[in-house]
Design a protein that fits this description.
812 residues; GIY-YIG endonuclease; 24 helices; binds adenosine-5'-diphosphate; binds zinc ion
Length: 812
């Protein structure tokens, strides 16, 4: 029997399934989806692996043998194993990267059992010599960790029978390690400063190495969890922080998912005729045409969520399960609440802000078939549901559905399609502003199309006014016209709420020198640092680096330093000064560390505890506040002129969505868009919430300039610490690609757009270059690219570089 095994810590350069022999007496235990420990490489170090296939062949060469089995039952079902293969074939990832993405964070640490040792003197005559030796080792163990280490070693070296014997003698009692309890208001968290940190690049102690490899695998974890699972004290972690290798921060604890789990008796939800028509259509499609994809284009406030509720209710009646995805963590609580009221506690939540313990618990509940609905962000698409009937992607055009900064670089929509085909389920994409690709597919008849073009209860779409900033005098609030300031005042008088949207790029406080033009930049990234009034520090939003405000210019020594730009904090202060009685709330999406705090802020605003909400992109979408009757966009212009072919789509979507936050309750809403380009078609179309005319213009342009959906875009990324090496690596890739494609053009159409530097050229001390190709994303193309990628990456010029390919990701 040969087991084909995905092994951890392989690189794309030599990744494949590795063949191992299964010992005769363990053939019953060897199942696809089980984790094993195997000797690997020349040094035969033990590594963890997962069996992905089993063959009953005679091996042609002598194989290494599996050392130990870590699971009794497969941790991956056969359906999940298929998804692993799908990810490997459709993105450019390794097998183990795919497995790690599918399983909840920390699975390999969580399933580690702990063994309690009780010394017994009776029955020793039944022990074999090895078992006696083992017993004497256990007696000498200094603490629990050492006991576990001894047992682990035995298991990994194939001596499971001896351990089983000791368990039977009640000398060892296995227990699953306990998990962190949530009681604290904030948790001290730790993460790698550089997620691609190379542990061999500096000297680390044994304990430090453990912590680093733990964090490299898990991303961000609480300090408690790190200490617990690595068996170190927090001093180890703090020392790593001093060296800048890891970053410490505080995170507010999310409300535990099941606080409000009891469904209340509520008036029966009655759909409007238009909503009912959509529901009937979707159900008909489900009954007759599975698997298939439906696109629901419904204007903001048209009741898409109500249609979801009814559809899921039907799924539950048929014994089918649903995955419902939202693009942002901050949107899960609102969604969750609506669904808990309707369906009680048979809901699981999956997103990265849950603690490792909670993620694991939720995973188990899902795997055990205890839930009917899974709500979450994009990782929810991997929820191991065996009775899947429906996947819903709300705001399907959002870029957060694309995984871009880590391998596998998949698009959630593609994985969702794969799962729906696999399980004969329905995929429902929904949005007020669908992506151009999806709408095109619907128009072509590939997806079925449903439209909701009325707001519920005759609620009117807000009246939108464009404010021409070239003409309009400014008020005392920087960046706010007099006109808008008056309207806000009017809203305050009427006791109604307002939202002000800032666009991030234009609103950062940057420190610069008046004399020589020096700008405070992060020493690790090629971006300006932002001044934070709250702590008086300059901070980098990309790597978390912070420093005190310098008193003199480091370049010329002059003392004329100036803060420019209008940070959200500055605007908040000015708004507060201008309206001293107003209760002002600021939501800063820039500082990723306080992301978790958003939920409580959203709650307070929703309860009417604030009058004005100021924020960046994060306030624009999805939220449902009935008392908001005014929305002001302070500057629409920077969105219009990006270097991404999708910038018009993003601008239209953002403006339409934020305008749609206004007037969702009974009252008439208003929206104001300040702009220096009041005649720009995208501004006009967003103002009139006219998706159709936006789409018409955009699709013509995409076709003319040959962009998706008429082709696919493949981005090749090259990063490394040496600027020159990155340059050489990028050139080499192009050369190899050119040679590989000689004469192939007919079969594999592609066009190399060339080499360029991204907007942030240096991040976390790493230089970045990219090559962009237009292509057809099919098997032949991906096979070719994989070959080119692996070949280039294996060359010695690239030994210190990281190379990757990303299809249809963000090119910014
Ligand atoms: P969308 O998701 O399309 O933006 P929502 O589903 O959030 O819209 O609906 C907007 C508002 O209208 C919500 O407050 C919702 O409760 C209400 N609503 C929509 N349809 C109905 C209905 N059939 N019955 C009761 N309330 C509804
Ligand atoms: Zn200067
Ligand atoms: Zn930085």
């Amino acid at each position: 029997m040969i087991a084909k095994i995905a092994v951890e810590k392989t690189s794309i350069r030599f990744d494949r399934l590795f063949d191992y022999a299964v010992p005769d007496h363990q053939q019953a235990q060897a199942k696809i989806g089980c984790r094993v420990s195997v000797p690997f490489g020349n040094a035969n170090q033990y590594r963890q692996g997962v069996i992905l296939d089993i063959k009953n062949d005679q091996p042609e060469i002598k194989l290494k043998t599996i050392a130990g089995f870590l699971d009794d039952q497969p941790i991956l079902s056969s359906k999940m194993v298929d998804i692993v293969f799908y990810l490997v074939h459709s993105t450019f990832c390794t097998y183990y990267e795919a497995i790690r993405t599918i399983l909840p964070a920390g699975f390999s640490y969580f399933l580690k059992k702990s063994y309690q040792f009780i010394d017994r003197l009776e029955g020793l005559e039944n022990y074999s010599p090895h078992q006696l030796e083992l017993l004497s080792f256990l007696r000498k163990a200094a603490n629990q960790q050492e006991v576990d280490r001894i047992v682990q070693h035995q298991l990994e070296s194939g001596r499971r029978a001896d351990i089983d014997f000791l368990i039977q003698q009640q000398v060892l009692t296995p227990s699953v390690s306990s998990k962190r309890k949530l009681g604290d208001k904030t948790v001290n968290m730790v993460k790698m400063t550089d997620p691609e940190f190379d542990p061999s690049s500096c000297k680390l102690s044994q304990k430090q190495k453990k912590v680093v490899s733990f964090l490299l695998e898990l991303g961000a974890v609480s300090i408690k969890e790190v200490c617990y699972f690595c068996g170190v004290t927090d001093i180890v972690v703090k020392n790593l922080a001093k060296q800048g290798i890891v970053t410490l921060y505080e995170q507010e604890v999310y409300r535990t998912p099941y606080e409000a789990a009891t469904p209340t008796r509520k008036p029966e939800l009655v759909l409007t005729p238009q909503q009912q028509e959509v529901l009937d259509g979707l159900l008909h499609q489900y009954y007759t045409n599975r698997p298939s994809v439906a696109l629901l284009h419904g204007i903001t406030g048209s009741g898409k969520t109500q249609v979801f509720l009814k559809l899921i209710e039907k799924m539950i009646q048929m014994g089918k399960q649903t995955i419902l995805m939202v693009p942002e963590i901050s949107l899960t609580p609102q969604m969750l609440q609506k669904f808990q009221l309707a369906f009680g506690s048979e809901i699981a939540v999956m997103h990265s802000s849950l603690s490792m313990g909670e993620q694991m618990d939720e995973y188990k509940r899902i795997k055990n078939g205890e839930v009917k609905i899974v709500i979450g962000t994009r990782s929810a698409v991997f929820a191991p549901l065996e009775q899947l009937g429906l996947i819903i992607m709300d705001e399907e055009g959002e870029s957060t559905y694309k995984s871009s900064d880590m391998s596998p670089r998949y698009h959630t929509r593609d994985v969702a399609k794969y799962r729906c085909i696999q399980q004969k389920a329905l995929l429902l994409l929904a949005s007020a502003t669908p992506s151009v690709e999806s709408y095109y597919a619907a128009k072509q008849g590939v997806y079925s199309l449903y439209e909701l073009n009325q707001r519920y209860a005759d609620a009117q779409l807000p009246e939108v006014t464009l404010i021409d900033m070239r003409q309009e005098p400014s008020s005392l609030i920087t960046g706010v016209s007099e006109y808008l300031a008056e309207e806000i005042a009017r809203n305050l008088q009427q006791g109604e709420q307002s939202i002000l949207l800032l666009n991030r790029r234009g609103y950062r406080s940057v420190l610069s020198c008046v004399d020589c033009g020096w700008v405070a930049e992060c020493p690790h990234c090629s971006v300006g640092m932002t001044y934070h009034r709250a702590n008086g520090y300059l901070m980098c939003h990309y790597c978390g680096y912070s420093q005190e405000l310098p008193k003199t210019c480091p370049e010329c020594g002059g003392s004329h330093l100036m803060l420019t730009g209008q940070g959200t904090q500055k605007i908040e202060e000015e708004v507060q000064q201008y309206f001293p009685d107003a209760r002002v709330l600021r939501m800063d999406a820039d500082t990723t560390f306080t992301r978790a705090a958003l939920e409580s802020k959203i709650q307070s605003f929703s309860k009417g505890e604030y009058d004005i909400l100021i924020g960046t992109q994060i306030v624009a979408k999805g939220l449902d506040f009935p008392n908001v009757t005014l929305v002001g966009v302070l500057s629409a212009d920077s969105m219009l002129f990006g270097d991404d072919f999708k910038c018009h789509e993003h601008a239209f979507s953002m403006l339409t969505q934020v305008v749609g936050r206004s007037g969702r309750g009974g009252k008439k809403g208003r929206a104001y868009i300040q702009t220096y380009n009041p005649d720009h078609p995208v501004i006009r179309q967003a103002a009139s919430q006219d998706y159709q005319s936006f789409y018409q213009d955009e699709i013509v342009e995409r076709e003319a300039f040959f962009y998706p959906p008429f082709c696919d875009i493949c981005l090749v990324g090259i990063t490394g610490r040496q600027e020159q090496q990155v340059d050489i690596g990028a050139r080499l890739f192009l050369t190899v690609l050119k040679q590989a494609t000689k004469g192939l053009r007919q079969n594999i159409p592609m066009k190399v757009l060339g080499r360029s530097k991204p907007y942030i050229y240096k991040m976390n001390n790493k230089y970045r270059q990219r090559i962009i190709l237009k292509c057809r994303n099919n098997t032949a193309f991906r096979q070719l690219m994989r070959k080119v990628l692996v070949y280039t990456a294996s060359r010695k010029e690239c030994s210190n570089l990281h190379l990757y390919c990303d299809i249809n990701g963000e090119i910014n």
